[in-house]
Amino acid sequence: xxxxxxxxxxxxxxxxxxxxxxxxxxxxxxxxxxxxxxxxxxxxxxxxxxxxxxxxxxxxxxxxxxxxxxxxxxxxxxxxxxxxxxxxxxxxxxxxxxxxxxxxxxxxxxxxxxxxxxxxxxxxxxxxxxxxxxxxxxxxxxxxxxxxxxxxxxxxxxxxxxxxxxxxxxxxxxxxxxxxx
Length: 181
Known about the structure:
Blueprint: H1 8-16, H2 20-42, H3 46-50, H4 56-65, H5 70-87, H6 96-104, H7 108-114, E1 121-122, E2 128-129, H8 136-154, E3 156-160, E4 171-175
Antiparallel strand pairs: 1-2, 3-4
Helix pairs in contact: 1-2, 2-4, 2-5, 2-8, 4-5, 5-6, 6-8
């Protein structure tokens, strides 16, 4: 099984990236690595089927099969869509509208972390500066990626067996830890 532990350095690199395309691609990479790891946990033979071609879209389809919550999968899908638009030259700037669309897909408990009035940014010398001066959409995207990463890594797979006319095989179900935000 693939095992990708939480790696803060990827998020730090995402924040340091000087352009939107780099930030979106790094954010997508973080999410994709977590999704691939989670699919390998839930579906131990997934690498035999997909090999190194297991990507975000495949993972989202697989996790939907086990009823992973839309509040997790939809934002991951939106990040994948943004990544594809940047990668194929259809977008070249991350805007407040993109972040707002992404934020709208988050569970209500997470939305407050992305609001501009709750974000504190330092200039590196301990002085607080306006997030708007530090590319607010990129900072918000980084926060969203971090929140999603925690949710994905905290999810657990459990097996339950239902005996009845409509259920003859073990059913894999999704169990998420509900963070006390």
